[in-house]
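Researcher: Let's run the pair from yesterday's discussion. Sequence first, then tokens, for each.
Model: Starting with the first of the pair.
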Amino acid sequence: FLSLCFLLLFFLPLPVPFLSPLLPIISHFFSFVYTGIAVRAGYGKLLSQKDSCFEEYYAQCQKYGIPTRAYWYSYAKSVSEIRTETEVFLQVIKGKQFEYPVYLDFEEFSQFALGKAKCSEMAKAFLEIVEKAGYFTGLYSSKSHLETYFTEDILNRYTVWVAHYGVSQTSYKYPYDVWQYSEKGTVSGLTGNVDMNFCYRDDFPTAIKELGLNGFQKAETVPAEKKSVQEIAEEVLADKWGTGAERKERLTSAGYDYAEVQNAVNALLASADKSQLTDAPAVSLMNFGNALEALKKGDRVARTGWNGTNQYIQLATCISYKTTDGAIINAEHDAIGNKAIAFVGTSGIQLGWLASQADMLAEDWKIVD
């Protein structure tokens, strides 16, 4: 199993010092890749079956900055055996970094003779263990074997490297990222036939590194420093946190104590110049003009001087009434549209509330929940 895998638009020739020791690779199970190198880590269930050239080839890739992938050739005939193979594979690649997925190479006829259910069970066991260990993992096999001996949940869940020769375009019917289209390719500097591949996904290195897989450490994001309550209160006054229930929900979701922020807002309002109050959407210690502005933005407002409990005023919209014959009439007004101030108290709702002289001159208005 030898493959040449490349992306059409990128050609990264190997440095001359690196090419020479790779010439014997033809007789070894090694994949030469224009955008990287795929190295066979080993085969079977014994640590002694680690590929004798794996360490050398991996070291050379690291030395010359060539992206790397690895695969393990399986001979397992039971879930127990493939679990053992998987653990050996993980031992072999431990401490190394791979910019491309690490694959299960599944292509022995003795394995396919076990049937679809058993092949799927074994492949799933390998892939789940490798993924749980922190690797981006996938499955390699031929088109006919993939379609015949593996269930859809595996083929749709993991990245697939499909081998399909002698066609202008593979007809493999499930998702795949790499297509091995020939076993008779040639590469300058290497002797003999080389398998050829198209890789249709060029973000493997980026995705793997960002996710912290295949031996890479996930970049830690430094959380933004939490703003002080005073800063948030100033933003509330600048109308950056919405009004009413929306403001409360947003502040709470962001980890702030709503009551504490509201108290800070009130303190700022109390010390502010009266000329600044007309722009403030906020709450208590307001004059009547600011209370009206808060109403227009959807807040409920009340006076601290009102004796009744749970009393407030709110702007009502979409007002309509029903006539005796059952018709619904929208109460549209030329000047103010279909809206009016409603007074809500223990005795019910009063539409068309009118402020008294005391209400209009008072400066003890506040926003209420």
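Model: Moving on to the second of the pair.
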Amino acid sequence: MTAETGAGLPPRTGGDTGPERSELAPAKINWALEVLGRREDGYHELITVLETVSLFDELRFEPADRLEVVVEGPEVAALAHVGGDSLVRRAAAALADEAGAAARGRVRISKRIPVGAGLGGGSSDAAAAVR
């Protein structure tokens, strides 16, 4: 594993210094999952054994004056209930807040991981957004 590619991921496309770049977010299978309890922030502490598989969403990052998340692909209709409050938006906003910066930029997600299939697409997308 390297900082440049992540755990078994193909190399990033686009440059780190250019205005646009992309990240792949792999689907995963949980071989073991134990939910330990709910944290004060509403999320849960977990112990998991997981493996990534060769199915990916692709996130493309573009300059924008404000934070925007755009989802494209056949899974868009399955995400209608999320509205503007996606895990990617929350992760990007939290990172900007922690850095003391304004949250801005456009994240285009080419959604290939089926929504609700238990393959961790949302959390993988959020991790890719802040990688």
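Researcher: Give me one sentence on the second I can quote.
Model: The CA atoms of residues 104 and 120 lie 25 Å apart.
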